[in-house]
Amino acid sequence: MTTCRRFAQLRQRYEREIDYQIGRAKQHAETPSGRASATAAKTTTALMARSLSSHVSRCLECR
């Protein structure tokens, strides 16, 4: 599947945010903020999947 430049930018932005949240969750493993970061990473992953799927369905270049 070929994708457009915008798809790659969206994916990179989400992956950077997820990596940050996972790193913060590991750094503060047993604290409430660490657990919240782990939950946020899971939520962001689902949001990324939804956003990229929506992009592919609308983008003529990605179809």
From TrEMBL:
Q: At the top level of its lineage, which domain of life is listed?
A: Bacteria
Protein name from the UniProt record? Uncharacterized protein
For this protein's source organism, the top of the classification is: Bacteria, Bacillati, Actinomycetota, Actinomycetes, Kitasatosporales
